[in-house]
Amino acid sequence: MEYTESALPEPNDAERERAETVAAALRERMAGSGAIPFDAFMRTALYEPGLGYYVGGRERLGRGGDFVTAPELTPFFGYTVAGQVVDLLARCGGGDVLEAGAGSGALATQLLAELERLGNLPERYRILEVSPDLKDRQRRTLERTLPHLLDRVEWLEDFPAEPWSGVLVANELLDSLPVHRVRITEEGLKELYVAPDEDSGGFKWQEGPVSDPLVADSLGDLSGLPVGMETEVNLEAPAWVAQAAERMERGGLLLIDYGHPAAELYRPERARGTLMCHFRHRAHDDPFYLPGVQDITAHVDFSAVAEAAQAAGLEVGGFTNQAQFLINLGLTHRVEEYLGGGAVSDEEQLQLATALKQLTLPQGMGESFKALLLVRGVEGPFPGYRQGDRAGEL
Fold first, then answer.
1. Backbone region of residue 116 per phi and psi (left: phi > 0; alpha: psi in -120 to 50; beta: other values)
2. Per-residue confidence (pLDDT) for residue 62, from 0 to 100
3. What pLDDT does 237 receive?
4. In the chain, where the domains are located
5. What pLDDT shows up at residue 34?
6. CB-count exposure of residue 225 (10 Å: 0-12, 13-18, 19+)
7. Which end of the chain has fewer CB atoms < 10 Å from its terminal CB, N or C?
8. pTM of the predicted structure, to 2 decimals
9. Name one GO molecular function term (predicted).
């Protein structure tokens, strides 16, 4: 995800109206109890049918939205990731590709184009998408770019009901699942709820007891963390991975997102957690600003995800940062091959160089983004992890 940290732009009238509508829905939910856990606030703000950020019809991805993901930066992201997809399909003896949360459709286009170029098109390319407007946007993208492959593509609203084999790809999905917010106090772990703020007309944090025992269980031993530290606990990401694994007979789940192993995520240096919001390519940390109009994310606890996957019968096939993953899969060679073909303008070369830096440099996506591969019925080593595999850190 590419963004800028600077002053927030002013919302337009339509955005203000939508935010107030979502805020009214949130206040209604708080009317009975006076406050709700943050995961309930985040779920409403992002996924409330017809209102939420991801299902409300507003453009979110790309230069005209709130943030740019790796596939929008350059098609070489998807072209390169396709190398790991091809490898897994070969180990499965064929199968489907299932992309969860396909955004603008850019990654689907890139993967399908590269798989076709390599002569390894899947039997089906299935897209798991809960947003009706994103589904329409994905279809339009594929109709415009790969109309001859559209008959291979189908959209799902839930995981396949039948057993399947192949590869599931999820890029920047887990970070957007609702999280709990907690604070370490002298009395132990407390949860941060969201309550109406009568003074401002908005919302405020309100400390209370932990709403779900799994929240405390997920954090484990808190002895090394300072009083006053706040952080997030994502119970939905491990549950999502377990559900994704349920019907997969053979293949892999490739999860690319920003996050860390638990030992790195829950550290005193992250005293305010990792909650981040995005509005028109500006990043900030106020989730109560324009609910339903801005994105809300939190870094992924990859240790919790891996543990849930192993409990569901999967194995860790590899874990590394995005830069190492792409380099292992031949990103540099693929780009050099393209540039060596000629007919590339100076402007195109500059744009490509800028995008590649964003994908691979530590101050961009290179280190903060990780690639976790979870497998069943296939054995490695896998090409995306031939060097720099950090699975031992999980």
1. alpha
2. 46
3. 97
4. 20-34+48-176+234-265+301-393
5. 92
6. middle
7. C
8. 0.94
9. protein-arginine omega-N symmetric methyltransferase activity
- Which residues touch 391 (CB under 8 Å, ≥6 apart)? 316, 318, 319, 385
Residue owning tokens 């809960």: 130
Token pair of 24 as six digits = 């009214």
Residue 122 — left, alpha, or beta (φ > 0 → left; ψ -120 to 50 → alpha)? beta
CATH architecture of structural domain 20-34+48-176+234-265+301-393: 3-Layer(aba) Sandwich (3.40)
Walk along the chain (394 residues) in steps of 10 and give the mean pLDDT of each run. 61 92 96 95 94 74 64 96 98 97 96 97 95 92 97 96 97 97 96 95 96 92 88 97 96 98 94 93 91 96 98 98 98 89 83 92 93 97 98 97
